[in-house]
């Protein structure tokens, strides 16, 4: 597991998430720990190195 810090796309607070390095590509929804809004998270690892991280609002 790896802790990754980023800015919430809703409240702009810096938050962190634990990322599982054993899964090379992940897309999921997780709520912000500050404002509780749903964040779409896209994570990609290559050889256990984080190569892409996106955290976006789910509003269209």
From TrEMBL:
- Superkingdom, according to UniProt? Bacteria
One Pfam family from the record: Zn_ribbon_21
The family database entries (InterPro entries) matched by this protein are listed as: UCP037225 (IPR017143), zinc_ribbon_bacterial (IPR025990)
What is the designated name of this protein? CPXCG motif-containing cysteine-rich protein
Species of provenance: Mariniflexile aquimaris
């Amino acid at each position: 597991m790896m802790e990754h810090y980023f800015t919430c796309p809703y409240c702009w607070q810096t938050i962190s998430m634990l990322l599982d390095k054993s899964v090379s590509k992940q897309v999921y929804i997780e709520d912000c720990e500050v404002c509780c809004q749903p964040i779409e998270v896209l994570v990609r690892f290559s050889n256990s190195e984080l190569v892409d991280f996106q955290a976006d609002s789910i509003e269209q």
